[in-house]
Write a structure and sequence with these properties.
The complex is a heterodimer of chains A (272) and B (151). In chain A, 30% of the residues lie in helices and 27% in strands. With 272 residues, chain A is an alpha+beta fold. Chain B has one domain (2-144). In chain B, 46% of the residues lie in helices and 19% in strands. Chain B has helices at 2-12, 14-72; strands at residues 81-84, 102-109, 124-131, 137-144. In chain B, a hairpin with a 5-residue loop joins strand 3 (124-131) and strand 4. Chain B is elongated, with a radius of gyration of 30 Å. The N and C termini of chain B lie far apart (97 Å). Classes of the chains: A alpha+beta (272), B alpha+beta (151).
Chain lengths: 272, 151
Amino acid sequence: MKKENDYYGFRLKQNGLTLIEVLVICAIFGLLSVGIFNFFMNVIKVSKRAESQTLVFQNQNFVLENLPVSLKNCIPTKIDGFADTTAFFGSLSVKYLDFYNKPVSKFISDLVTPAGGLSQSSFVRYVSLSPTITDTEHSTLYNFSFGVGTDKYLSESTNPDVIESRKKFRLFRSCISKNLDDRLNSTDSLNADSFPFYLKDYCSNITGLSFKFFDPATLNWVSGDWNKTYLPAAVEISVTASDDIKKIGDSTKIGSGLSKSVIVSIPCSNLE
Amino acid sequence: MEKNFKTKNILSNRGVMLLELLITIIILGVIFVRLIYSFNHSIQIFIRAREVTNANYIAKREMELLKMQYKHIPNFSPVSSSDLFVADVMTNEKIAEYSGWKFDMIVENADVAPNSQSLSGRLKKISLKIYSPKNNIFSYVSYFTPAGNNN
């Protein structure tokens, strides 16, 4: 009679496992482990991708929510019953603002002078609807709002700073306020934080920005610069945001971009 | 003796091992299913949130276009139509960012004012039924009149 622990054939023990069974178990566990590892790696990869996409999406939404507001804010309000287009178009001629060479006080008076009807407590707001990338040395503003009050200056701006090495726009929302702060060089009641759309240190990778205008005279959409003597009836703002910018050797690879556009009606076209 | 040997054989050898393996697989399976479900659920929430935002953008865009057409085109009178797509304003081609999205526009007369006075078809109720690529439906309604869409 054989005992239970007797060793015979490939069996390790009578009530144990054969070598083949151990190998099969090892193989199964190996496969299972690899599967679990891959699963978790995929989860991490997808969640990272989702997080990155969400950031881009949210940044892009932020820009698209704010640009129309800024744009509408730039439309001249009616003062004493007259649509004050001077403020708008007078400012339009100052297309590229030079923050580096012009003192702020001069800059303010440049904006205030054309708007003769404005009182000191009014807001003067400026928008350059056509951003340029040719002026790389200085700021090339495409959107700038400036408020002049009796006792304080408020500022808000979006500034696509062209970084040649990266070949991309970077949208800074706080740099101008800092510049202004530097230039004022005093406690001159600069109160950018109280501006409704000011978000400190906000930054987003914007790889494309374009405008199309609806001409109320011809009832056609046009792209490029708006240099008519009347307001467009609507503006389409298109923004492309990118989630990933990598430097590979000398070239720069921009990740997949998300594009979105929004149409903004201009309430009071002065063609009417 | 024979009976004892059989019982011992079933419980202590492969039967027990298989049983343990089965229980382990079931437990792991349940955990994995829950894990995958919650992960899938979070992805679905993310996709849904993006869909809602996109649908909002499409609705805003189309309503703005309608508003503009009402304001600037004389005697503009939209009609109900289906399977529309989001088009470029200049080329009228499909916009890549909204590929897969389509919408129906339903135009109805909103004739009766609160004081029961007939508006003779001047007030239009325009509904947009927007279909996402995953075929989720988003509905938006706005009222238009040839006069006074100046905002």
